[in-house]
Specification:
By secondary structure, the protein is mainly α. The protein is 76% helix and 0% strand. It folds into two domains: 150 residues, no CATH class; 173 residues, no CATH class. It contains 16 helices and no strands. The relative contact order is 0.10.
Length: 355
């Protein structure tokens, strides 16, 4: 047993929830952002302004989502170069529609973890490493994708569909639940974007998820303004509320105003504004990060108009998006901040960041 542990340590194979559930998931979201998401944005701009070159560039970027995710995950798992580069082929297969259906990102995550670790096991263990390492990595990854992909993709798709159906049937309660949970995931050191992508979370549920993420990002930006000023406002409001995890661990109650805000804006999004995210599913979990969530909603409007589902973008649509994304979370957390500070629950310095 000691020899096995020593061998695994030498190969940098660490079985941990952090490495697989946080590091790998977070890296996968970056891979998605650097391919599917940015490609969607570029293509949308090209379509709107009639620039064919941008449409072409965006389309190619979107098509690279599978390899980008797989290589990103391999990077997070600290794969050696030959294993890392071999993962591109794994990503192509695992994210293919005819293999994983709508559950591509989840399939990529799971099979890439296995392919990475098996690739590490054989790396530099033979004199023909240039053949053995990529063969094992690709064989394991593609083999598992073909074997497990349809089942994992179906399960992820069905679970996502269940959430979206439940949100349509019970928009108030599900608006609260989805908004709060996805918002919490955004601030935790895991990836809400990757979760939404893996579950193909769009539609009304996607709108609730967007509301929760915005409540966390804008909420913390407003809550911590006294401590972090304009730098903190931008870093959290356009960057990520994950910056506050250290303060949350030290004093958990500072998280409560943002969570309450998400519980309020979620059902407002689903019941009043009927805000739907019909763009890329990853956008549902991005909030105001680089305004990707808002661009995703706009992309969805454009797609719906092109498909004849929607006649046009109304003033009510725009007002709803602005209210849910910026105004309501900002106002609600500002009011809660006054109450919490008056009650002595939040004090000066509690939300200070080292910026």
């Amino acid at each position: 047993m000691d020899k096995i542990k020593a061998f695994l340590k030498k190969k940098n194979i660490i079985f941990s929830a952090k490495r697989y559930g946080i590091d790998a998931l977070g890296a996968m979201a970056q891979g998605l952002f650097a391919s599917l998401l940015i490609g969607t944005i570029i293509k949308t701009i090209g379509t709107q302004f009639g620039i064919e070159l941008l449409v072409t560039i965006g389309t190619y970027a979107m098509s690279a989502a599978g390899p980008a995710m797989a290589v990103s995950i391999g990077w997070a798992l600290q794969c050696p170069p030959l294993v890392l580069f071999s993962l591109a082929a794994v990503g192509v297969c695992a994210n293919a529609t005819d293999v994983a259906g709508a559950g591509g990102p989840l399939v990529v995550l799971i099979v890439t973890i296995f392919a990475s670790e098996f690739g590490k096991l054989v790396y530099k263990e033979t004199k023909i490493d240039i053949i053995v390492t990529p063969f094992v990595t690709i064989f394991v990854g593609v083999g598992l994708a073909l074997w497990w992909g349809p089942g994992i993709g179906w399960a992820a798709s069905e679970f996502g569909e269940l959430i979206m159906l439940a949100t349509k049937l019970h928009p108030f309660m599900m608006g609260i639940l989805v908004s709060v949970l996805v918002g919490i995931a955004l601030t935790l050191p895991i990836s809400s974007a990757a979760i939404c992508a893996a579950l193909s979370l769009t539609g009304l549920a996607g709108g609730a998820a967007l509301a929760g993420c915005c409540a966390q990002m804008v909420g913390f930006a407003v809550l911590s303004f006294k401590d972090n000023k304009w730098g903190g406002l931008v870093a959290q409001g356009i960057g990520t509320s994950m910056l506050q995890m250290g303060n949350i661990v030290r004093k958990p109650i500072v998280w409560l105003p943002a969570i309450i805000a998400s519980a309020i804006t979620g059902p407002i999004a689903t019941c009043l504004f009927k805000l739907e995210m019909n763009g890329a599913a990853i956008s549902s979990g991005m909030g105001t990060c680089g305004l990707v969530g808002q661009i995703g909603v706009y992309t969805g409007w454009v797609n719906d108009i092109a498909e004849g589902i929607k006649t046009g973008i109304t003033a009510f649509d725009v007002v709803g998006l602005i209210m849910i994304s910026f105004i309501l979370p900002g106002v609600i957390t500002w009011l809660l901040d006054l109450l919490f500070r008056k009650a002595g629950l939040i004090k000066a310095g509690d939300l200070k960041l080292d910026l």
